């Protein structure tokens, strides 16, 4: 579905999308809000999820717990319209910018972002990011 | 070094930092710029790297290619002063906010962020994020 880069130069500076999936066939995906830049979640994609994300413009992931393709929002309504897809230098991570649909959230716990807790003196404190646009 | 959460409720809403390392003992870490919010990199931490990051206030990772603890900037000078550490809902990902030292970059290729390429019509195009503060 995706090619393999033939050299470090091609991997890092080339124009060919050649994602490096891990031993489980997965790549990490960071998802941010297209308007605020807030980091919403970190999830995983297999080749099919990445392909469907690029084809449909809606975020697809791979659920490690369910071991299944997962179209974000299929049950929650929190569909993610993708405005941009980036890859990192060694193409083992993907960055999505999205516009969350439905209630505008991304986290099943009920927060806007999955990263709603800060580590303070070794203890977790719930504190959402201040909104910014 | 870190405890295991005893329930989903404790994992998702508790105050105990109970990171869920994967089969290789690693957890994904997303690193953003503390001032601009730009996503700089995605890397990995083992328990020691996370502990050292929390203790020293400087980002430590685990290099999967070198299979070794990696203090960011030790050779490049791109030390990352950590201003905030967050965890996600199921505690299998960490979000760091950092102030990059040295030349202010985070990527070994020479860009400010590792995510310097956009996927456009299936092809990678180098385009750094516009600066914003």
Structure keywords:
homodimer, 133 residues, 2 helices, globular
Structure, explained:
The structure is a homodimer of 133-residue chains. With 133 residues, chain A is mainly beta. Helices cover 12% and strands 35% of the residues of chain A. Chain A contains 2 helices and 8 strands; from the N terminus they run H-E-E-H-E-E-E-E-E-E. The first copy, chain A, has helices spanning 8-13, 47-56, and strands at residues 27-33, 39-45, 60-63, 68-71, 80-87, 93-100, 117-120, 123-126. In chain A, the strands form 3 sheets. In chain A, strands 2-1-6-5 form a 4-stranded mixed sheet. The longest helix of chain A has 10 residues, at 47-56. Chain A is globular and about 45 Å long. The first copy, chain A, starts with 7 loop residues before the first helix and ends in a 7-residue tail after the last strand. The mean pLDDT of chain A is 96. The A-B interface holds A 12-17, 28, 30, 32, 37-39, 41-42, 54, 84-89, 93, 95, 107-109, 111, 114-119, 122-126 and B 12-17, 28, 30, 32, 37-39, 41-42, 54, 84-89, 93, 95, 107-109, 111, 114-119, 122-126.
